[in-house]
Write a structure and sequence with these properties.
Layout (H helix, E strand, L loop, with lengths): L16 H14 L12 H8 L3 H13 L3 E4 L3 E4 L21 H25 L2 H11 L11 H15 L3 H9 L1 H14 L6 H17 L3 H21 L9
Antiparallel strand pairs: 1-2
């Protein structure tokens, strides 16, 4: 990501640029963009992508190595070992119903609005400095010029990173179990809006409003921002209506 493409970083007290890049790298590992056993780009390429100096990149990579997430091999580079829980048995997933009608979409949007509103509020109260950096790392992708087909995965990664910041495994498992339904709805929105040059910026603005409330640990504002965003997204799917967007 070029320097001019990324949003300005807002550092928490005691947070360094290496912490921010570390959070972005963690997000790439968590959502599978950097899959287990894959080779990481060179330090030069990472510095260009994140718009940071090589010393900052080295510090962020060292944090990943210390956490056992990557392994460096002399002469070969660094390789992903996996997310922190990669060696653990994954939790049993909740079986949610498939979406096959307009009524299903309406019910699903209402369900997400209630659940994810509380997820955002809980994340605002419980998030750690590292989890906030991870959310910011995912958020930065919405200002990048990424392919349309990658957008639903970026969108889902943002919402999942907030669930992870709650510290509540029930929220995380619920969203993970809803990946198929959520990415399907997100793909519809992104595909419907492919000819809208301002759409990417609107989604980024909505997500930044949610992030800012979580950063400030304002639970009410986080809940409201998330619910307004999902209400707007539902209106986009069902009616192609932008009216809710102006309320963010």
């Amino acid at each position: 990501m070029a320097i001019e493409e990324r949003p300005p970083y807002v550092l928490e007290r005691g947070q360094s640029l290496a912490d921010v890049v570390h959070g972005q790298m963690l997000a790439l590992i968590d959502d599978g963009s950097w899959s287990p056993r894959s080779r990481l780009p060179s330090e030069t390429e990472l510095a260009r992508r994140f718009g940071m100096s090589r010393p900052v990149i080295r510090q962020a990579l060292a944090m990943l190595r210390d956490a056992g997430l990557i392994q460096s091999r002399q002469g070969s580079g660094s390789f992903v070992i996996g997310p922190p829980d990669a060696v653990e048995q994954p939790p049993e997933q909740v079986l949610f119903p498939a979406i096959g009608s307009i009524a299903d979409i309406t019910a699903f949007v209402s369900f997400r609005e209630g659940m994810e509103g509380e997820i955002a509020a809980t994340a605002a109260l419980n998030r750690s400095k590292e989890q906030l950096a991870t959310i910011l790392g995912v958020l930065g992708r919405f200002r990048e010029k990424r392919a349309l087909g990658e957008r639903p995965q970026d969108d889902f990664a943002f919402h999942l990173s907030i669930a992870q910041a709650t510290g509540n495994p029930f929220y995380v498992n619920s969203l993970t179990s809803l990946r198929e339904q959520m990415t399907m709805g997100m793909a519809l929105i992104w595909n419907f809006s492919a000819d809208r040059p301002d759409f990417r910026a609107v989604v980024a603005d909505h997500h930044e409003a949610i992030y800012d409330a979580i950063r400030l640990q304002d639970a009410e504002a986080a809940r409201d921002a998330m619910r307004r965003h999902l209400r707007w997204a539902g209106a986009r799917i069902l009616r192609g209506d932008d009216a809710e967007a102006n309320k963010i």
